Amino acid sequence: MKIAILSRGKNLYSTKRLVEACKEKGHQASVLNTLEFEIHVEKKNPNLFYQNKPIKNFDAIIPRIGASITAFGTAVVRQFEQMGVFCLNTSQAITVSRDKLRAVQILSRHHVGIPLTEFVKQRGGIMPAIERVGEPPVIIKLLEGTQGIGVILADSKKMAEAIVETLQSTKQQVLIQKFVKESKGTDIRALVVGGKVIAAMRRSASGDEFRSNVHRGGSIQAVDLPEEFQTTAVHAAQILGLKVAGVDMLESNDGPMLMEVNSSPGLEGIEKATGVDIAGAIIDYMEEEVMFPEIDIRQRLTLKNGYGVAEIPIGPKSELVGKTIVDSGLRDRDVNVLSIIRESITIPNPRKDREITSGDILICFGKLETLKTLIPPKKRTRTRK
Ligand SMILES: Nc1ncnc2c1ncn2[C@@H]1O[C@H](COP(=O)(O)OP(=O)(O)O)[C@@H](O)[C@H]1O
Ligand SMILES: [Mg+2]
Predict the structure, then answer these.
(1) What total number of domains does the chain contain?
(2) Cα–ligand 1 centroid distance for 148 (angstroms)
(3) Which of 245, 270, 289 is where one domain is finished?
(4) Which of 10, 134, 213, 372 is the most exposed place for a label (fewest CB within 10 A)?
(5) pLDDT given at position 310
């Protein structure tokens, strides 16, 4: 494979390790500075220049997009996607995971623990939001901070309110979040590659610091990750659409609580702490997947009017409970079951003798007229006060 690594530093540990791993496995690697691309948008001819020369034919790219260049960096990745090049993480997934609010919003409807989080715009909404989050101290967090910068612990409600007001007055967007006390300045970083946790470490803050980031002086140690944490990490990466992710979780009394998911996780700390060849695992994974660059099924499947994708929750009273897919008659009514979500597992392409059970969610593609009859009427949900 010809692999391009989009990175602003040839000498960064992670970049060097990825180049090494490519070479070891017989691939060609080029490190290209993300900022030196020119994006060429033309009908039927999406293209890219690098330092004003047309780029070579790459089979795959590994984006390592820093937080300060998210917009341009993801535009470059998006262009590679239009050109049909396999991108290890897609522009969409990078964008979503970079924004801490977006990420927890999307995760919140799934089986993934997250700390209670509020986001408000109006001044009058700040104090009530702080109160909904619970007893102080509370966490105030910049939407796009990194390395622990922009995460503040406010000791009192008044202090929290003042911090939020101050940051908002300088046009900063902030989250108000429940402080997970019992994690005591530690968190878990799980490295997910292609749907598996391949390495994990615990980071511990130094002294009375509550942020465990290595950049804030945190120390690291390899951990054997309990099943529940592995499932949460894999599930979160999958929901956000990341093939490679550094998933950060707090160890709360209620199990894993996901804080953020990094699309360009640093490899140095975790490779050194665990001895796992993560760069090698990433390249192995790319060898398997390179034939499958991202396609957006919605762009392709719903071109025909009257067809679409829908999520069908199966309640205990559904007529489909206890029937197999073939007996459900869905296919005869022009509906295909693409997958079944059962608890936190997904059964892709379920076979026709697979039985539908209460609590399942069927992801279906088909005639909207039929799908309409299968979707139960919406229950009214109330926000907890
Ligand atoms: N809700 C929380 N409760 C307890 N500790 C937290 C919470 N949110 C963040 N922290 C601590 O602060 C650190 C940095 O927060 P994080 O959201 O990961 O921001 P960054 O992107 O700057 O790393 C975390 O690694 C964790 O140690
Ligand atoms: Mg973090």
Answers:
(1) 4
(2) 7
(3) 289
(4) 372
(5) 92
Query: 111-131, pLDDT tens digit by residue?
Result: 899 999 999 999 999 999 999
Would 111 be classed as within a structural domain?
Answer: no
Is pLDDT larger for residue 385 or for residue 91? 91
Establish if 106 belongs to a structural domain: no
120 and 73 in one domain? no
Structure-token pair, residue 304: 């025909």
Domain closes at, from 139, 159, 179: 179
User: Does a structural domain hold residue 107?
Assistant: no
Is 118's C-beta closer than 6 angstroms to any atom of ligand 1?
no
Return the pLDDT at 381.
Answer: 62
In this prediction, residue 382 carries a pLDDT of 64
Structural domain contains residue 252: yes
Confidence of residue 380 (pLDDT cuts 50, 70, 90): low
> What pLDDT is recorded for position 294?
85
Nearest CA to ligand 1 atom 15: 148
Please work out whether the CB of residue 16 comes within 6 Å of at least one atom of ligand 1: no
Which of 211, 219, 247, 260 for mutating ligand 1's site (highest number of atoms within 8 Å of CB)? 211
pTM: 0.92
pLDDT, residue 56, reads 82
The confidence band for 377, taking pLDDT boundaries of 50, 70 and 90, is: confident
Q: Residue 310 belongs to what domain range?
A: 297-374
**pLDDT band per the 50, 70, 90 thresholds, residue 71:** very high
Beta carbon of 210 within 6 Å of any ligand 1 atom: yes
**Does 210 lie in the same domain as 279?**
yes
